[in-house]
């Protein structure tokens, strides 16, 4: 039977935010508070962001998940999903996200961008997006499998909870990136010195800036737009890895550099 009423966004957001602050094996939202679809999930995400910003500071960017075939197969979700990136959870390399402070910490190898100007709401081509990118950065996205069974939650609840997001560790910005073929760049992840995965920029929707275009269009449908200074993580080049406590994690992306953290 189709649900007649929208969920109580404040109540559902309070549960998600409380779980984020005390991560554990989250069983999911009560049935009457689960978002029915991705549109309702995004309204719930906005409400959760309002609560989380009191603890983590303002949202200063976005992460995009499920932009590569390897991650879509891994999560069983065939389309990208976005999540918020908060000021307190963005670190510079070398970073540290203690595994003991999370339920099951994971790491991903990402190409990130920092925007130089506001973009008007709407669809944007790759050239327009490239003109708005101030710098490209190598990044480790840090995630947390904070769920009792993520596959059983469904995409709407995962989207509302920022799709596993914890934070990120950023490398040095590369301002002179326009001479690079971002799609051709190779990247790899190392855990305690051993290679744990390898991929290319083209694995991200054919070109990393295609992911940025997807986000710009999705935000426009939410009545939002990309802003100057925001950081956007465009998607992992390799499957998520789950390092042991104390492990040393590094990513290396051709022509962009190396990023390191301790789990």
TrEMBL record:
Highest rank taxon of the organism: Bacteria
One Pfam family linked to the record: FAA_hydrolase
Lyase is among the record's keywords: yes
Alphabetically ordered keywords of this record: Lyase
Family annotation (InterPro entries): Fumarylacetoacetase-like_C, Fumarylacetoacetase_C_sf, Hydratase-Decarb/MhpD_sf
Domain Fumarylacetoacetase-like C-terminal: residue ranges: 97-260
GO MF entry, a single one: 2-oxopent-4-enoate hydratase activity
Single GO cellular component term: cytoplasm
Alphabetical list of PANTHER family matching this protein: 2-KETO-4-PENTENOATE HYDRATASE, ACID HYDRATASE
Protein name in the entry: Fumarylacetoacetase-like C-terminal domain-containing protein
Organism: Inquilinus limosus
Lineage: Bacteria, Pseudomonadati, Pseudomonadota, Alphaproteobacteria, Rhodospirillales
